[in-house]
Amino acid sequence: MAANGALPVVDLAPFLAGDDDKAGGVARATEAVHEACKTHGFFRAVNHGVPPELMARALQLTATFFTLPDEDKDKARPIEGSEAPLPAGYGRHPVNSIDKNEYVIMCDPKLGFNVYPTNPSGFREAVEECFAKLTELGLLVHDILNECMGLPAGFLKDFSGDRSFDFMAALRYFPATEEENSGLSAHEDGSCISFVIQDGVGGLEVLKDGNWVPAEPVDGSIIVNIGDVIQVLSNNKLKSATHRVVRKPVHRHSLAFFFNIRGDKWIEPLPEFTAKVGEAPRYRGFMYKEYQQRRLRDKTHPPSRPEDVHGIQRRCARSPWWTWRLSSPATRAVREACRTHGFFHAVNHGVPAELLAAFFALPGEEKTKLHRSPSAVLTVSGPSLAVAVVIHATHADNSDRVAYKSSPPVSSHSCDQPGATTEAMAAIGALPVVDLAPFLAGDDDKAAGGAARATEAVREACRTHGFFRVVNHGVPTELMARALQLSAAFFSLPDEDKAKARPAEGAEAPLPAGYARQPANSADKNEYVMVFDPKLGFNVYPAEPAGFRSVETQIRTPT
Ligand SMILES: O=C(O)CCC(=O)C(=O)O
Ligand SMILES: [Fe+2]
């Protein structure tokens, strides 16, 4: 029984007993685990099958290793360029981290990646033995959770794949000082299941209903908690609880074992917790390996803002945003498209056609509000009035906000809706509009702040869209209309007439000035007249229609 406010205790003896003794004990213990996972996400396991003598020995040898001088500990640093899934070996929290601890990370010894301290002798044997015993315990708790989650027998075991992503950390936390006492900041584990073996110092705490519950040291017991993988698979039915380590006046040692899932596994809520029970998935899928890598980077390069730490809880309980940013095949495609084109067509984007129609039926100010919502906005791009979905994402390295612009196929979302006029486009914030009048105005108006405001508007547009619409720009509207009109007239001429304006062979123009068409095999279907600064003397102008040359010249000439 749990003491008041303490962690639930589960006796695993029935699972390890002979068949006769199992009887009702197994069902009761399974229920106790289920209850603990729902209420705390944590429990204390007793009679778990890991010999207490082994736990004590491994902790003792860990403590001895960490007392060595830094230069000795540094001999167990990870090997550069190793292909280990994690940096196996000795490490310390970066100096700028508020968490003060050091650790030795170990992968499955069978993988051959580990770098063990050679001193004290016996360290390697003890931790390898612990690793094996904790793996057995992991398989047992796996099966118990499988039962608690109502999954087909052996499902989680098969789903996990091989055990190549399991790892263990031998940890030492430094004594607290008067100013600070964080050993490990509040976090959730990215594992499937975690196990903690700790010495008698204490400091591990679990967040329950807004209160920190101490996971007090009890000799021979192991603290068990479920991690993010189970929370996502169960669509939030079982919780990966927040926990932390508070430093005490003396060094504290622990062994934390993370029972994971194979790196290439795709993690998303299981149908048993979604489609089969009529619930919407609360998380998007992600590749486990990517998730682990990001979390590890958070440890070695702690983000300055807590909200930038990767985890499923803080950032995506309701809007699992970061998961989208990881490298699912679709995300890789987005990243590549943004790198190469800056634009991409999104299909199956989840914006229902009715929503788009409803959106355009909204009054202008309502559209503006929607547009300003931080995650996904609808906007209108270009004179064709094709609808674009603009997604403001955060760069993977948290450096800045970018806008990925996607123009869904015009056919499915073209919106020649009444009211979608140029004014309406501006009103809903389609492209930012910048009024350049202050720059063209007299000095008095400039000084009145207009130029500064317009500059700020340009900066903002460049940050958010990379595009903006200018008005009062100094190019006469009549001239623009006339140039377009004369261009249209030129292109309507027969091909042999247009060909007369082909670029001159051997001309020294920086690019072929004159008329051209996209090659027949190009996906792009257009024709054009390329015009350079008339003063360079390279241009080949169509002789027809009359006025074409002078209008092009005027349009290029600064006023
Ligand atoms: O050292 C402990 O008690 C807990 C360690 C832990 O929570 C972790 O490494 O994720
Ligand atoms: Fe943890």
TrEMBL record:
PROSITE patterns in alphabetical order: FE2OG_OXY
Cofactor: L-ascorbate
Keywords annotated in UniProt: Iron, Metal-binding, Oxidoreductase
InterPro entries reported for this sequence: DIOX_N, IPNS-like_FE2OG_OXY, IPNS-like_sf, Iron_ascorbate_oxido_reductase, Oxoglu/Fe-dep_dioxygenase_dom
Boundaries of every Fe2OG dioxygenase domain copy: 164-261
One MF annotation (Gene Ontology) recorded for this entry: metal ion binding
A Pfam entry, by short name: 2OG-FeII_Oxy
Annotated segments matching region Disordered: 72-91
SUPFAM superfamilies, alphabetized: Clavaminate synthase-like
Name listed for the protein in its UniProt record: Fe2OG dioxygenase domain-containing protein
Species of provenance: Digitaria exilis
